[in-house]
Each structure stands twice: as C-alpha cells, then as structure tokens.
C-alpha cells in the first residue's frame, strides 16, 4: 500500500497520502477480466472476483483489509479503472489504487481515496515517487458522490508526463523535468496495485476520526480495468519499432482545452498542494514546483 503522512494546513486537516526506444507500436493490453489480469495478494478471502471476472470487491473488517496486483508489469502506459468507493461512514478507511516498482529506490504513482463521515466528501490524495522519494502530495474533493456509482480513474504515464484523470477530466500533471535535475520515473517497470485498509491513525482529519467498526465490513468495488501499455517481461518491452496509431498515448500531453479543464479543477476542487505549502518547506519550495511555475 502507498505511503502517507499527515499534517495540518490552512484550517484543514490534510492527509498526505532509459527511456527505451518506445517510439513504435505496442502490444496493447486491454484487460477486462480480473481472473486473467490480476492476482489477489492478501486479505484471506476478503477480496473476491465475481460475475465471471467482470467485478472485483475488496473488503475490510477489524481483522484485516485486502488487496490485489496486476499480473503484468508495465513500462509506460494508460491505466484505467472504474471504482465505486466505500459508502456511508467510511472514516478511517483508505482505498488505494496505484502503480509501483520494486526495491528501495522505487517509483510510484498514487491515487488514494480517504474515507470520511457520512455526508462529508471523500478526499482524493495523489502523489508521485521517484527513486524512493515522494512528498509531492496534491489533494482534491470530487464533484460527485464516488460511492453512488462507478467512476473512471486513470493514470497516463509516458516519457514526457504523468497525468491523473477522473472520468476523463485531468486533475493533475507531473512533467518530466529531468533537464532541470529532477528525477522522473522512466527506468523501472511497475505493476498496478490496489488495497483497502484501515488507516484511522491519520486518514480522516489527521486521525481525529476513528473507524467505526460497527459499520464493517467496508467494501470497495472495481470493474473495467484497462491497460493500454508496454508490457515489461524479462527485461523486454512489448513495444516494437513499427509505427502505429495505437500508441498515441505515448506522446500525449495536455492540449490547451485540457489545460483549461485542469486549471478549473485545481481552482475549484484542490484542497492541498505541496507547491503552495511554504510552511512545510521553509527553506524553499521543491524545485519541481518552481520550475513548473516558470515553464
């Protein structure tokens, strides 16, 4: 599960949760059956694959949570998943959905959904780790009830940028700024992971609101997992050297319309941005914040 921490900012308790020659076509992995595409990795029966592989549920009770990972590893891709989050009083719970490599200098791209009291909004926590270092938290409220129906959460990861999407709307962009000395995840293959777990020591209002176990089991649901990606196996990418229109995501970036949509989301729904937290970084904001501002 993804690493997180907590702190208080602006009267809101905020919870913080080479490039190989990939210029040709790729074997696109259109995953659609959880039986074929993922392995349940923990939970002692609390994770279930249902409806002939079309639906996966994770559950959490006082004894344990649960989780799964993709069978394939990827080196660049567009990952889509439809989630329906834990309904009702979900305070203290975290549903995590992320990409991660292995080792002590890992790369990681995080979505974490922080539960809350009934009627209060979920916080969507995002982070990017490069070579084992994160501290790049951005958090958002959603403009809909994520427990009432399935919504699509996507990660675009290519050599130029990482973009987080909610229902096709960009909410965050992390650019490749290696030319300024800022590491970018491009050398380590990653799997897709997801988990549902108890984090009531920090997840809701900095740990002030604890998990109400009388509401257990808590359940999050998943469907329509798609990975349009370069599969990495035994040191070899599934990408080939021939041209194809199927790899448009490999050079995709935000156009002017998408940039406006991103700006609108961040203006109206962002509740924390590490690039604005001067109290947290008294010696100066991280370089990726100042370079991005100048770019």
From TrEMBL:
Gene3D superfamilies: 2.60.120.200. The keyword Transmembrane applies. It comes from Lithocarpus litseifolius. SUPFAM superfamilies: Concanavalin A-like lectins/glucanases. Glycans are attached at residue 116. Its EC number is 2.4.1.207. Residues 5-222 form the GH16 domain. Catalyzes xyloglucan endohydrolysis (XEH) and/or endotransglycosylation (XET). Cleaves and religates xyloglucan polymers, an essential constituent of the primary cell wall, and thereby participates in cell wall construction of growing tissues. This is Xyloglucan endotransglucosylase/hydrolase. It comes from the Eukaryota. GO terms for cellular component: apoplast. Contains at least one intrachain disulfide bond essential for its enzymatic activity. InterPro entries: Beta-glucanase-like, Beta-glucanase/XTH, Beta_glucanase, ConA-like_dom_sf, GH16_AS, XET_C, XTH. Signal peptide: none annotated. The active site is at 108 (nucleophile), 112 (proton donor). GO terms for molecular function: hydrolase activity, hydrolyzing O-glycosyl compounds; xyloglucan:xyloglucosyl transferase activity. Keywords: Apoplast, Cell wall, Cell wall biogenesis/degradation, Disulfide bond, Glycoprotein, Glycosidase, Hydrolase, Membrane, Secreted, Signal, Transferase, Transmembrane, Transmembrane helix. The chain crosses the membrane at residues 12-31. The keyword Isomerase does not apply. It is found in: Secreted, Cell wall; Secreted, Extracellular space, Apoplast. GO terms for biological process: cell wall biogenesis; cell wall organization; xyloglucan metabolic process. It is an enzyme of class 2 (transferase). Belongs to the glycosyl hydrolase 16 family. Pfam families: Glyco_hydro_16, XET_C.
